[in-house]
């Protein structure tokens, strides 16, 4: 096959794949976060009353997390492929590292929460009396609302820097990303819905990439 044709197809399909993966990740993670926020009290020191009334809803949210993680991993991969040989090694390393750390902490927090739910089903009273619920609840809260959120902020900063240098996104979108990233980095758990900022930003970037891709393919003389 003609190498030029392969290169042209790659330029067209890569941003589209990134956009689809980003949109899928955003929708799944937003659903997960909304379900959890509506079911679990924001106070990490709660007594665990929600375990009886909202366990099924939280379990559904946790079951969606792996699929959101797969989509996010694909999003990272196709973005790196899009940047290609022009990537700055420093920011590319921070971009990849922060993205993988965010994903790892998301999985660990979901697994910890899932362990609490499983333990509650087999020994509900012992879970509360022994303090295992309090430990699991606090661990999940700290992982998600302190460490994972900070890594999401770093991921946004590095992504915006790469987008700005390579002109992959408009200036206003890059500046908005910087502002939102600083909000995530400086947040100290006072805003319970702050975690939704990250998937909303990924959704914004992904929709923009998808629209630009369709514009290029529809433009006269597009290869």
Provide a brief overview of the structure:
The protein is mainly α and 223 residues long. The protein has helices at 3-39, 50-53, 55-83, 89-122, 124-129, 132-166, 171-186, 197-218. The chain has one domain (16-218).
Short descriptors:
single chain; 223 residues; mainly alpha; 8 helices; 82% helix; elongated; disordered N terminus
Mean pLDDT, all residues = 83
Count of helix runs: 8
SSE class:
mainly alpha
Largest sheet: none
Report the radius of gyration as a whole number of Å.
20 Å
- Helix content estimate: over 70%
| Count of beta strands | 0
SSE string: HHHHHHHH
SS strand fraction: under 5%
- What characteristic shape results from the CA principal axes? elongated
Runs in which pLDDT lies below 50 for 5 or more consecutive residues are 1-12
Head-to-tail CA distance between termini:
15 Å
In total, the number of domains comes to 1
What does this structure look like?
The chain has 223 residues and is mainly alpha-helical. It has one domain (16-218). It has helices at residues 3-39, 50-53, 55-83, 89-122, 124-129, 132-166, 171-186, 197-218. α4 (89-122) packs antiparallel against α6 (132-166) and α7 packs antiparallel against α8 (197-218). The longest helix has 37 residues, at 3-39.
Describe the secondary-structure layout.
Elements lengths: L2 H37 L10 H4 L1 H29 L5 H34 L1 H6 L2 H35 L4 H16 L10 H22 L5
Helix pairs in contact: 1-3, 1-8, 3-4, 4-6, 6-7, 7-8
